[in-house]
Amino acid sequence: MVRTIVCKKDGCSGNEFHISTEDNKLKLVCKDCGSTYYYDVSYYEFIMLSNCAECNNDTFKVFNNLDKQGIYAKCSKCGAPPEKIYIDDEGVQVTYEAKLLQDIKQFMYQIDQRICSLEMKIDGLEKGQELLEESLAYINRYMSE
Ligand SMILES: [Zn+2]
Ligand SMILES: [Zn+2]
């Protein structure tokens, strides 16, 4: 179930907010009355910035997906999400593209590791084959003597 977040102040019911992220919390400031709300977003692997990724507008409609325990925002003008900054494995802030690139690199590294261990196994097999041939040659020699 997705719930639209609406300002709870008496007589306001504004549904557009300025957003910012403070200490793993998403801070919402009602555009109409200035009331402030905080939502825990420490489970996010990114930080939402205060401006729209598409049109640079700075007011958002905010939704709470109760099933997935997720807060998300849409630009009140164009519906795009806010600009985001991702945190990489070392805790450095990076763009989405950089994060993606890093994930791909990590994935490639894992594949590389697998190929490497596969090659070692093949190597081992070849050595086993050599040993077998040597033994057979030895046995042959022994038998013919
Ligand atoms: Zn309000
Ligand atoms: Zn926008």
Explain this structure.
- It is a single chain.
- The protein is rod-shaped and about 110 Å long.
- The mean pLDDT is 88.
- The protein folds into 2 domains: 2-87, no CATH class; 96-145.
- The chain has one helix at residues 96-144, and strands at 2-4, 17-22, 25-30, 36-40, 46-52, 60-65, 70-75, 82-87, 93-94.
- The protein has 145 residues and is α+β, with helices and mostly antiparallel strands.
- The protein is built from 1 helix and 9 strands.
- Bound molecules: zinc ion (ZN) (2 copies).
- One zinc ion (ZN) binds next to loops.
Provide tags for this entry.
three-stranded antiparallel beta sheet, 145 residues, binds zinc ion, 32% strand
Poorly predicted tracts of residues: none
Query: For the largest beta sheet, what order do the strands appear in spatially?
Result: 1-6-7
Rg over CA atoms: 29 Å
Q: Which hetero ligands occur in this complex?
A: zinc ion
Give the tally of β-strands: 9
Tally of DSSP helical segments:
1
Q: How confident overall, as mean pLDDT?
A: 88
Structural class, by secondary structure, is alpha+beta
Percentage of β-strand residues? 25-35%
Query: Please, what is the oligomeric state?
Result: single chain
N→C terminal distance: 85 Å
Helix proportion range: 25-40%
Tally of distinct domains: 2
The biggest sheet amounts to: 3 strands, antiparallel
Order of helices and strands: EEEEEEEEEH
Overall shape: it is rod-shaped
In short:
The protein has 145 residues and is of the alpha+beta class. It is built from 1 helix and 9 strands.
SSE blueprint:
Elements: E1 2-4, E2 17-22, E3 25-30, E4 36-40, E5 46-52, E6 60-65, E7 70-75, E8 82-87, E9 93-94, H1 96-144
Antiparallel strand pairs: 1-6, 2-3, 3-4, 5-8, 6-7, 8-9
Bound molecules: zinc ion (ZN) (2 copies).
